[in-house]
Amino acid sequence: MEPNNAESGARHPGEAGILHQTQRCRRSPPAPTPPAGQRGCTKKVWIALIAGLVTFVTIQFVLPPSGWAVERAEAEETSRLLANLLKAGRSVVEHNQLLIDDPQKGDKGLTPEVFEQQLVQEFRKQAGLDLSKLKSTPASFLVPPLAKELLPAFVLASKEVVRDAQAVINQRGIGYKNFIPATYGSQAAERFSKRSHVRLKQTNLQPRNPKNEPDEYEASVLKWLSERPRAEAYVSELTDHGRTLRVVMPLYYVTACLNCHGEPKGDLDISGYPKEGHREGDLAGAITVTAPLTRP
Question: Among residues 117, 113, 111, which one has the least CA distance to residue 130?
Fold first, then answer.
């Protein structure tokens, strides 16, 4: 599910910014204007006072403390990488879907180790980061210390999901097994989130899995995204009075998804759910990351 280019400078209500990779769009509060009707020396004094006040306000309220800015930057880039890693895992399942659902074949060879290899390759292709060299990669803005800690944790969660699904994947005589990108994504995100202070989730305005029900914030962003063109961008916003970072990365329907989610709307798909009537490029939901800016 690969988005296209976004409209520059677009924003979600509530100060959420549409970002192009690591580019952030921010608005500063408007500077106050001098009072009308002042003339001569009085006007000059007011201008001086206002200029001083604007400088004070800018320093105190527009520029965040340096520690906060660094922590947000680290949390935001880590969240973006985690969302992309989950997307990469979904892609690996999608690429192996015909193999997984082959009723004639028993042992599919899709072991946790094979899945990890394919996940590393897919993530390198999507994000440009080689997880096999992550330990030796120096920490930087593009590879924050938090990412070096959490990305391997998600890989481990993914391997455990594939390990626990081996009996299903390798079952002979049955075609559709319900081990699909969405199933893998929900299970891997849940397993990862139970072990981390960062919460990873798949969500949709009309989820088939009740666990993927959006909260109020996620629903507002999804609704906003659904009214905009498909875009290769993500929404990033501070919530909880600046204590929590929320990142929302949209997912879009591709051709393979339409077997279950396409047309004719209302017809039952292979899993027994009514099709939603979506088309390629429609918003399919989002991967959301919730990261507290204060480490527990």
Answer: 117
Q: Where are the alpha helices (DSSP H) in the chain?
A: 40-57, 66-95, 97-100, 112-127, 145-164, 166-169, 181-195, 216-226, 258-261
What's the CA gap between 161 and 172, in Å, rounded? 20
Q: C-alpha distances in angstroms, 36 versus 32, 43, 47, 53, 149?
A: 12, 9, 11, 17, 56
CA-CA distance, 165 to 160, in Å (whole number)? 9
Q: Could you read off the pLDDT of 101-122 as tens digits, one per residue? A: 999 999 999 999 999 999 999 9
**Residue 84 exposure: Cα atoms within 13 Å on the Cβ side:** 25
pLDDT band, residue 69 (cuts 50/70/90): very low
Report CA-CA distances (Å) from 206 to 42, 274, 286. 62, 12, 12
Residues ≥6 apart with Cβ < 8 Å to 167: none
Nearest to 26 by CA among 43, 40, 9: 9
pTM, whole model, 2 decimals? 0.77
**Number of neighbouring beta carbons within 10 Å of residue 52:** 10
Radius of gyration of the chain (CA): 23
Amino acid at 258: L
Residues 6+ apart with CB under 8 A from 88: 119, 122, 123, 125, 126, 127
Tokens 């306000």, located at residue: 57
Around Cβ 56, how many Cβ atoms within 10 Å?
10
